[in-house]
Specification:
- With about 300 residues, the protein is mainly β.
- The chain folds into 2 domains: about 110 residues, Immunoglobulin-like; about 130 residues, Immunoglobulin-like (Sandwich).
- The protein has 5 helices and 22 strands.
- The chain has a 5-stranded antiparallel beta sheet. The chain has a 5-stranded mixed beta sheet with strand order 8-16-13-19-20. A 5-stranded mixed beta sheet has the order 17-18-12-21-22, with no helix packed on it.
- The protein is elongated and about 75 Å long.
Length: about 300
């Protein structure tokens, strides 16, 4: 009996020594994270822009029937070292939803073991306290339908680890408003930048990136910038996606007394200037409002098509 135990012990030592020395991958391997999800974003052109555009990703995993499984997040530091995430999933069918750049401006509905994907949503954090927001996040979205087969329990890395590439899509529209020639001063004679109001903006997405909910109102003060050698008031709003045929209105208001000077119907402006936001990844609507002595001109600024990086 002692000889048997001695022989068995020697056999185990030899086998495990072979596993350590042998790089062929034939030894049993305990894989903690069996699913690698790599992130990618290419916008309207061929260039890979993920790390340039997206600084945070929240990953939500649901079963095929919509039942919530888990949430994982990756910040800028993690994404810089690896533009992706690893998950430990049992064999089965899953729906994986990712939101990029959801920060303090975006509210994501709480999820628990009893939550369903059909009830999950994102909306403006400002709506928790009312219907007015100063701005939105530069959101990006991705959805993946994944099937992990029982072969994941195989004994080699190549059979155990599944790797997928997930393409993100833009989930916001950038609306830039420039105001030139407006004279509005405080009691000390200092020039005041106008307040910009935008109404009719969609307030939320479900987890299939379909819009829903009551409209939200944007309200914020513009800031003076030196553009083409002129002092021009400017503001950039990031909204959820909207259609060309939309109910959005933009109002230019005096900072001194809050009175409305000009109202712009966004749908009409876009139609008159051949602007579309549908089917375009980096959708942009630039508007120049120029106040002259006896008139107000509304047009596309000459610098309007120059790409500007989102303020994250």
């Amino acid at each position: 009996m002692r000889l048997f135990h001695l022989f068995f012990a020697l056999f185990v030592v030899v086998i495990f020594s072979k596993c350590i020395d042998d790089s062929s991958g034939e030894c049993p391997i305990d894989i903690e994270n069996n699913f690698i999800l790599k992130f990618r974003y290419v916008s309207d052109g061929p260039e890979e822009l993920f790390i340039e555009k997206i600084k945070r990703v929240d990953v939500f995993v649901f079963k095929e029937d919509g039942q919530y499984v888990m949430t994982r997040s990756a910040d800028l530091a993690a994404l810089t070292s690896f533009a992706g995430i690893t998950l430990d999933l049992d064999p089965g069918s899953y729906r994986i939803v990712c939101w990029g750049n959801a920060s303090e401006k975006t509210f994501i509905s709480p999820l628990s073991t009893n939550s369903m994907m059909k009830d999950a949503f994102v909306s403006y954090t400002a709506l928790r306290n009312g219907t007015v927001a100063t701005n939105g996040d530069t959101l990006y979205y991705a959805l993946d339908h994944t099937v992990l087969s029982p072969s994941l329990k195989a004994t080699t890395v190549s059979e155990t680890v599944i790797e997928r590439i997930l393409d993100f899509h833009n989930a916001f529209v950038k609306v830039q408003v420039y105001i030139k020639g407006l004279v509005d001063k405080d009691p000390l004679g200092n020039l005041l930048a106008p307040v910009i109001e935008m109404t009719g903006v969609t307030s939320g997405y479900n987890f299939e990136m379909q819009t829903f909910g009551n409209a939200v109102r944007y309200l914020n003060t513009s800031a003076f910038e030196n553009i083409s050698g002129e002092k021009i008031a400017a503001i950039t709003f990031y909204t959820l996606r909207f259609k060309d045929d939309n109910p959005i209105e933009i109002r230019i208001k005096k900072s001194s007394d809050g009175s409305t000077l000009t109202t712009i119907n966004l749908k009409d402006f876009m139609k008159e200037n051949n602007i579309t936001v549908e089917g375009i990844e980096e959708a942009l609507v630039p508007i120049l409002v120029e106040y002259k002595e006896a008139s107000v001109e509304i047009s596309i600024p000459e610098w309007g098509q120059i790409p500007v990086d989102p303020e994250l």
